[in-house]
Amino acid sequence: MPRAENLSLSSTAIPGAHSRALLTNLQYVRALAAYLVVLYHARLLTPLGQALPLDFGRAGVDIFFVISGFIIQHVAARDDAGRPGAFLVKRLIRIAPLYWILTLMIGLAGPFAPALAGKAGVPDAGMIARSLLFIPYVDGAGDIHPVLFTGWTLNYEMFFYALFAVGLLIMDGLRRLVALSVALVLLVTIGATSDPDGAVGITYTSPLLLEFGAGLWLNMAWQRIRHVTSATRLAAGAAMAGGFTALVLGTIFWPTVPDVLKWGIPAVVIVAAALLCERADGGGRYKLALLLGEASYAIYLIHPFVIKAASLAAARLFRDAAIPLQAALLFGTLVAVGVVGVALHLLVERPLLSLLRRWLLPRSSSRRAHGSSPVRN
Asked: How far apart are CA 62 and CA 244, in angstroms?
């Protein structure tokens, strides 16, 4: 059975944004999550990377999903209650443009540069259309991946947004949260008991949906916590360290444990700990980390292209290189991904979002989308 969670490089969270009072720790975690995914894919560049236990990098996606649930509950539940249409338009503006551009680039260039399409092969018009519409399908390699393989997570995001949009019709916040949670649990239960074999069924009943639900409840708890003692902050820091340790050790010692437990639970702990530390002291102000957090969506989408370029260099120059040179290639690739991702964010993503919001959103709604959220999304 094909699995959407397969993150293999040759076949492979989450959106960024603007605010008035930035949750800096959440941005740091988002940047780290993006780089976990990058590291997971970049490890295949060299024998050194393949020998190291770096599979835990896949957990970056789990962290993204928890953050996504938190952000959507925090922002949309306030600004778009009773307005599911407005919510979905904002989400499409935020998610789709950059993804569509890169998807079309692969679709148009694929016949002339098949390497861009990876092992799934050059996509046909139907695959491109389903990718642009966020409809899951099984690709030529047997994986549930769209044309731009990192977009498999966006199929989950858009499905969650659709569920949340329906939930916005319930004006009471707690009832909405309970209803959404019940819906997510029912979907996952259906998937666990019926073993769906179609791409849509597998995606829309995946246990990964529970991570969005966890993010919803984290926001509910965070809204009710107004003061954090120094002892609680210390405990939160220890919990975060423990969460990251669990991510690493889970790959080594519990390889057969389902991903939603092995990585989903630590992801929830990491995000919760970051939020508690934020409540305690407001977080630090590390400009580079904040910039990487803001650019995390662009980094996530573009990193396969950078790694593909690095793989060509590795094949030519590093095939039998010594370990220090292999390490240098891995480090250089991580740096290059950051540079390209930030450039894409600053030069393409941010101006494009600003333009689309001015065109497609009412003025008051556009101001809220830019300035009212304490988290960048």
From this structure: 12
What's the pTM value of the predicted model, to 2 decimals?
A: 0.89
Q: What percent of the chain has pLDDT over 70?
A: 87
In Å, how far from its chain's centre is CA 19? Answer: 19
Give the separation between CA 377 and CA 361, rounded to whole angstroms: 16
Which is nearest to 137 in space by CA: 158, 155, 114, 119?
155
Buried (b) or exposed (e) across 168-198, using 16+ Cβ within 10 A?
A: bebeebeebbebbbebbeebbeebeeeebee
189-197 contacts: CB < 8 A, separation 24 or more? 195/1, 197/1
Domain spans, the chain: 24-371
Q: Are 48 and 330 in contact (CB under 8 A)?
A: yes
Closest CA to 269 of 53, 59, 41: 59
Q: In angstroms, rounded to a whole number, what is the distance separating the alpha carbons of residues 35 and 22?
A: 21
Alpha carbon distance 149, 158 (integer Å)? 15
Query: Element (H or E) spanning 72, and its range?
Result: helix 59-79
Mean pLDDT to the nearest integer, 216-223 = 93
What does the alpha-carbon distance between residue 39 and residue 229 come to, in Å, rounded to a whole number? 35
Q: What is the pLDDT of residues 317-331, one digit of tens each?
A: 766 678 888 899 999
100 burial (CB, 10 Å; 0-12 / 13-18 / 19+) is: middle
In angstroms, the Cα distances linking 225 to 48, 265, 276, 280, 351 are 45, 21, 8, 10, 36
Report the candidate in 13, 7, 64 with the shortest Cα–Cα distance to residue 41. 7
Q: What is the largest CA-CA distance in the chain?
A: 62
Helix axes of 264-281 and 209-224: crossing angle, nearest 10 degrees: 20
Residue 131 CA to residue 158 CA, distance in Å, equals 12
